[in-house]
Amino acid sequence: MSSVKVSVIVPIYKAEQFIERCVRSLMEQSMKDDIEFVFVNDCTPDQSMQILERVINDYPERNNQIVIWNNPENLGVTRSRKKGVELSNGEYIGWCDSDDWCEKNMFENMYNQASFNSLDIVVCNYEEITNEGTKIIRIVHSENPQIAITNSIYGRSFSGVLWNQIVKKEIMKKCWNQIVPTNYSKDTYVLFHVYYYSQTIAVIDEPLYNHNTENLQSLVHIRDNTKAAWLVQQENIERIEGLYYKDNGWSKFHVALNGFIFERKNLYRNAFDSDKQFFNTFRRASRDILQFYDWRKMSTWKMYIAHNCYFLFKLSHKN
């Protein structure tokens, strides 16, 4: 195989119901040469790997483009993806979750866009499949990756998932070592670093990826709500703060990051030992996010007062 342009990393865990569709969508990519597929088995207990082997045997022309790695123990999606990056040889890194699938022209289109315009990141729209049906998720174009971060508070300027993006490997390797492994929001933490270090980005206004939310057993749909899990989230947040805020000063990413912290903190509320601990953790995030509320409404003033006085906060959060 000549020099690899794109490495596609696929972590595998409990995906036997969907993995055949995933693998066939990769083997049938229109990008015939200069692409490799890195499958990382995270000690899946089902028949996913046997199905993988059977399917790739149908595509002997891809034999030299396939890498299969077996983790010595179940490591979780973050470490599995990191291992995939270490094994990859591509100029760009792409992704596919084992219960999702790609359109046949996905990686050819994305690489051509990246190569022609010398881009660090290329993002595409995607179709989301739920039990209720499907919908197309459109990513708003941003002038550069930093603007995408600052605009994330307003909508979909920042795609917080890896699988609808390709990123230069040199940037991805640098960023992957800066996060603490977690099975929840791992993509977002990596991408907060990736977008900070990147300079150029483009969005392909076409749904090239299909995201399936029906497999609740897969690696990416497992969330741990324990205190230990929250402490990992907190450490990742603090690492991003250390990157974004220089000399403890204001950052152009301040509001966007605090919006993310506000959402994350409330998601893990049951992991805190007490209401007071919850109140005092990342307090500025609660205050900061209130500037986006309508101050003509009494509810906004009540929230503001509650988030600045613990006694009133306690009263406002009584069951």
TrEMBL record:
Keyword terms, alphabetized: Glycosyltransferase, Transferase
GO molecular function: hexosyltransferase activity
UniProt entry tagged with the keyword Transferase: yes
Gene3D superfamilies according to UniProt: Spore Coat Polysaccharide Biosynthesis Protein SpsA, Chain A
Start and end residues of each Glycosyltransferase 2-like domain: 7-174
Domain of life: Bacteria
Presence of the UniProt keyword Repressor in the record: no
Family annotation (InterPro entries): Glyco_trans_2-like, Nucleotide-diphossugar_trans
Protein name listed in UniProt: Glycosyltransferase family 2 protein
Record organism: Phocaeicola dorei
